[in-house]
Specification:
The protein is α/β, with parallel strands linked by helices and about 260 residues long. It folds into 2 domains: about 20-50; about 55-260, Glycosidases (TIM Barrel, Alpha-Beta Barrel). It has 6 helices and 9 strands. Strands 1-2-4-5-6-7-8-9 form an 8-stranded mixed β-barrel. Helix 4 (about 125-135) runs parallel beside helix 5 (about 165-185). The N and C termini lie far apart (about 125 Å).
């Protein structure tokens, strides 16, 4: 008897319909990964691209700035490196005092370095109270650098383009600036960066000397800057850790524009 050959049943391929939401999800994940990659590249580029020493053939007046993040320096050693000036953080907000400030100020002055004091402006607090706090703590003598106000975003100073928020930041900063101007008879220097300059400074403080932070490029003339902070990871022989490095834009003779009478 002949064997009956059974045919294998043909399986139909089931095509799964693509979920459009899933496709959008993949696109968003890919875009986010790309953005994070670019951000990481820029951060790494900034960090490893910063100058670690003074090596400009264009700018000769060199300076540093310090706070409690740095140790109390050997200022005689700083002077030996040909550094002309130093800004020191004195206060922040309406109640914080930098713990290293009084020591660094006195020691630097004894070493004949031109010293100046700065206040870290805290968004959302009274400009008048911040001015009072700064004037109570900071030290000033004839020939010192003009006091400076540090205006930058931080963990406390939130970044926002909201009009009301920006307006409040500018309003209290104007109060702080006016209080210092009336006390010293000269407009304080304003330390800032590109973002903060455009948001708060550009249209509101035309008479103030600008101290610009830019770790990648020399600031353009659009910022009307006098001091350029070009590195957060400077190295000075005999000093432990990194330190902020700065250039004054013009000559030694013109540097006197930065000094209190």
């Amino acid at each position: 008897m002949a064997k009956q050959i059974r045919k294998k049943p043909v399986r139909k391929k089931i095509r799964r319909k693509k979920n459009p939401d899933q496709k959008v999800k993949y696109i968003l994940v890919a875009a986010l990964s790309l953005c994070l990659g670019i951000a990481a590249f820029l951060i790494i580029k900034d960090y490893f691209g910063e100058d670690e020493t003074f090596d400009s053939k264009k700018y000769f007046v060199k300076g540093i700035d310090v706070s409690h993040h740095n140790p109390i320096l050997n200022w005689d050693n700083v002077m030996e490196q040909g550094i002309t000036f130093a800004y020191m953080k004195a206060t922040e907000g309406n109640d914080h005092q930098d713990r290293n400030y009084p020591f660094n100020y006195d020691l630097a002055r004894k070493s004949n370095i031109k010293v100046g004091s700065y206040h870290f402006y805290t968004f959302g607090l009274s400009g008048k109270e911040q001015a009072r706090h700064f004037l109570k703590i900071a030290k000033f003598s004839a020939g010192d650098l003009i006091p400076a106000i540090d205006v930058e975003h931080s963990a406390i100073n939130t970044y926002s383009k909201d009009d009301k928020y920006v307006s409040l930041v500018v309003q209290e900063l104007k109060v702080l600036e006016k209080e210092l101007y009336e006390h010293f008879g000269v407009h304080p220097v304003i330390y800032t960066n590109r973002d903060c300059y455009k948001l708060y400074i550009k249209k509101n403080f035309p008479d103030n000397i600008i101290w610009m932070c830019d770790l990648r490029n020399e600031p353009s003339d659009d910022f009307n800057w006098r001091i350029w902070q070009f590195s957060h990871k400077g190295e000075i022989p005999g000093i432990d850790g990194h330190i902020d490095l700065n250039y004054y834009r013009y000559t030694f003779s013109e540097f006197k524009e930065l000094l209190l009478p």
